[in-house]
Structure formats: C-alpha cells, structure tokens
Amino acid sequence: MEDRKSEETKQLPETFLFVSILSSPNETARRQNVRDTWHRLSAKGPTVFLSKFMIGTMGLAPEEKEKLEEESREFRDLSFLERHEESYDRLAKKTLASFVHAHENFRFKFFLK
Questions:
Q1: Residue 98, SS3?
Q2: For residue 82, what are the domain limits?
Q3: Is 102 part of any domain?
Q4: Which of 36, 64, 75, 106 gives 20 to 30 Å between its CA and that of 19?
Q5: How many Cα atoms occupy the beta-carbon half-sphere of 26 within 13 Å?
Q6: Tens of pLDDT along 95-105?
Q7: What's the number of domains the chain is made of?
Q8: 77 lies in a domain?
Q9: In 3-state terms, the chain is what percent helix, strand and coil (to 5)?
Q10: What is the pLDDT of residues 24-69, one digit of tens each?
Q11: Tell me, what's the pLDDT at 43?
Q12: CA distance 15 to 91
C-alpha cells in the first residue's frame, strides 16, 4: 500500500511554490486581471511557481459549469472543488478544501493562499 501511494505521488506535477487563489464562479474579470498582472511575473516556469484559481462548483447550474470548463480549457489555471458550495460563511472550509485539493493533485514544498 505504501509503495503504491509513493508511486502515485511521484506522478503528480511538481512545483516549489503552489499558490492557491480563492475565486468564485462569477469572478471571471478578476481572474483575468490576475493573469494580466502578477501572474505573468513568474518567468521561471511551473517547476518553481504554480498557481490555481480554486472554485467551488457544488450546486452550480450546468451552463455556469460549462462556462468555467471553457475558461479552464483556455487558461489551464482553474481547479474545481466539486464538493464545495460557494458562500462567504464557508470561506474557511474552502481554504481547507483548496489545501487538500493541492495536496492530492500536486507535489510542492510550500503552499501560499
């Protein structure tokens, strides 16, 4: 069991710094502002710096989800938290969910929210 887990971990994308950016489904313009500004500052590539916009998708209408999936295909910087419903009072749970998602899907030395 331990060997299989370490083998799975080896296959995950690796980066030095993983940046989790909490975002809501309707914040397309804000995500684009980040992409157009400080997101471009990392010229060192994804092995040094990798960022993902974390978006809760539980309870979204199919057309909202499709719009997000199109954005994800275009920019490849969205991560969907399938079991998280967006609301301000669930922000702490979203932070935890984003860390768990990053831990399960990436190898990193440091995590920044």
A1: helix
A2: 2-27+47-112
A3: yes
A4: 64
A5: 4
A6: 999 999 999 99
A7: 1
A8: yes
A9: 50, 25, 30
A10: 999 999 999 999 988 777 666 777 888 999 999 999 999 999 999 9
A11: 64
A12: 25
